[in-house]
């Protein structure tokens, strides 16, 4: 009996704004055996084979070389045959995503990306791989937007005369050694500075969003860490669906692990994130002032959310606190495990805090910190820096402010309740812990020498890192406080009241 080829994700004659087409569908009335493939082609010279699952489902890519209307031939031996028509019509916009392959000032032609011995890792091969990856990313964005119930919106790229994405070779001014010695945030700033210095961002007609693939990245086998690398996401995968790629960047399927996906397991977009993304100028094609972005109105009971990354290993929900007007159930303490990021947060009620201190005092140790609230004290604002995860935060109460916990990356958010309200708990989840790196060392080490019988003030000189710490006697602190120009702009003074003593220092 003749079988039918059904395409489920696209309609006949549908218009797409991107050239790499994903066809998802099924073969009806067929019982595929092992190693049965669907032939998807534009003509005899442009064809590819795609595996069919035992239930008859398939996924196939077809690359449309230039804008226009196409008739794609789908064929399964002598079992099924179909012509599927599609139109490629690029979106015209001033907002364009531009892809770059970054190399350092001391990079040789074959000193590019990490690759096994004997594998070509030249700049030309790297650029070819990025061109294909850019096509995949553009198509995946459209499909994920569609899966969230929206039109197939995606970004616009610059294309070369051959119909593939235009990828620029970006030679930066810093060296490989320097790139691998700084953290991801600093590396991002260095690349951004070189993009601006090279004039790649100065176009009177177009507004660019730059996607940069770093050629300086290396995996250090001794430390088991990536150096010269900055990215979001989890690189681990239980199955590698692609085992190698051609010099042109096309990926070879690893047929031994091809399986039919029946759930949304793993990372996926929340529909609210898709709604926010569609108002980005590089997706919508319009400048932000012309659009009113969507907002979530929680009333006066919930602030946020911030930190949208939800795939860092196994996600564990933070425990929810019961609603109560009892003083014992009020927020009494916040525990934070903070290194480069906020790795864990836990709250105790006043009753739980009192019970815990009966058995063992709550003490800070390593990256674990406690912020305990006095009687009548409550949290009035939380300052948070976050991107995919929560980088760092600071707690403010009606009496004082905490130190800054965690890192300083990401965007700053100030979560402050309306008048008469205060923070009672934190809602969210945590994934696998982020491990902090080793402390940076540089310059001559000067040991601390404290011989003062009484400390009147502590002066901390710092920028991104603490550069110097010195202690003053009460007399020195009093004398210095009379001169408003005595301390430098990056010197912070913690002056003690008469009789006040330091009992603990958290670092």
TrEMBL record:
<dbReference type="InterPro" id="IPR021917">
    <property type="entry name" value="Unchr_Zn-peptidase-like"/>
</dbReference>
<feature type="domain" description="Jacalin-type lectin">
    <location>
        <begin position="327"/>
        <end position="432"/>
    </location>
</feature>
<dbReference type="Pfam" id="PF01419">
    <property type="entry name" value="Jacalin"/>
</dbReference>
<dbReference type="InterPro" id="IPR036404">
    <property type="entry name" value="Jacalin-like_lectin_dom_sf"/>
</dbReference>
<protein>
    <recommendedName>
        <fullName>Jacalin-type lectin domain-containing protein</fullName>
    </recommendedName>
</protein>
<dbReference type="Pfam" id="PF12044">
    <property type="entry name" value="Metallopep"/>
</dbReference>
<dbReference type="InterPro" id="IPR001229">
    <property type="entry name" value="Jacalin-like_lectin_dom"/>
</dbReference>
<feature type="compositionally biased region" description="Polar residues">
    <location>
        <begin position="236"/>
        <end position="245"/>
    </location>
</feature>
<dbReference type="InterPro" id="IPR053002">
    <property type="entry name" value="Metalloproteinase_M10B"/>
</dbReference>
<feature type="region of interest" description="Disordered">
    <location>
        <begin position="225"/>
        <end position="245"/>
    </location>
</feature>
């Amino acid at each position: 009996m003749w079988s039918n080829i059904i395409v489920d994700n696209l309609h006949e004659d549908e218009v797409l704004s991107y050239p790499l087409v994903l066809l998802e569908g099924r073969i009806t009335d067929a019982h595929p055996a092992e190693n049965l493939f669907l032939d998807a082609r534009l003509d005899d010279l442009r064809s590819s084979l795609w595996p069919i699952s035992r239930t008859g489902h398939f996924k196939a890519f077809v690359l449309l070389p230039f804008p226009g209307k196409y008739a794609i031939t789908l064929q399964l031996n002598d079992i099924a045959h179909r012509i599927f028509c599609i139109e490629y019509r690029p979106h015209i916009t001033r907002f364009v995503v531009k892809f770059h392959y970054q190399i350092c000032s001391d990079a040789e032609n074959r000193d590019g990306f990490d690759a096994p011995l004997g594998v070509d890792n030249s700049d030309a091969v790297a650029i070819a791989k990025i061109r294909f990856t850019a096509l995949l990313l553009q198509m995946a964005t459209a499909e994920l937007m569609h899966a969230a119930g929206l039109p197939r919106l995606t970004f616009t790229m610059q294309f070369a005369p051959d119909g593939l994405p235009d990828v620029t070779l970006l030679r930066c001014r810093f060296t490989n050694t320097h790139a691998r010695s700084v953290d991801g945030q600093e590396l991002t700033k260095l690349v951004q500075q070189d993009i601006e210095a090279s004039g790649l961002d100065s176009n009177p007609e177009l507004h660019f969003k730059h996607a940069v693939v770093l050629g300086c990245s290396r995996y250090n086998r001794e430390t088991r860490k990536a150096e010269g690398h900055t990215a979001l996401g989890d690189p681990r995968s239980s199955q590698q669906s692609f085992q190698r790629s051609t010099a042109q960047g096309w990926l070879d399927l690893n047929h031994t692990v091809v399986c039919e996906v029946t759930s949304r397991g793993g990372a996926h977009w929340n529909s609210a994130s898709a709604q926010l993304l569609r108002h980005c100028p590089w997706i919508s094609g319009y400048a932000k002032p012309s659009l009113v972005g969507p907002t979530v109105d929680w009333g006066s009971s919930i602030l946020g959310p911030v930190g949208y990354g939800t795939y860092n290993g196994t996600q564990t929900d933070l425990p929810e606190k019961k609603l109560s007007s009892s003083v014992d159930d009020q927020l009494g303490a916040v525990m934070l495990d903070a290194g480069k990021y906020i790795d864990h947060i836990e709250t105790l009620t006043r009753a739980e805090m009192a019970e815990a201190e009966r058995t063992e005092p709550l003490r800070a140790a390593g990256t674990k910190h406690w912020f305990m609230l006095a009687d009548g004290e409550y949290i009035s604002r939380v300052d948070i820096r976050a991107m995919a995860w929560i980088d760092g935060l600071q707690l403010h109460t009606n009496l004082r402010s905490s130190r800054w916990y965690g890192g300083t990356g990401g965007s700053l958010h100030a979560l402050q309740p309306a008048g008469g309200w205060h923070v009672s708990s934190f809602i969210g989840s945590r994934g696998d812990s982020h491990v902090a790196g080793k402390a940076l060392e540089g310059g001559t080490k000067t040991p601390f020498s404290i011989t003062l019988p009484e400390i009147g003030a502590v002066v901390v000189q710092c920028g991104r890192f603490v550069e110097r710490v010195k202690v003053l006697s009460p007399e020195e602190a009093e004398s210095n406080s009379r001169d408003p120009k005595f301390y430098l702009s990056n010197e912070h003074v913690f002056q003690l009241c008469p009789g006040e003593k330091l009992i603990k220092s958290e670092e």
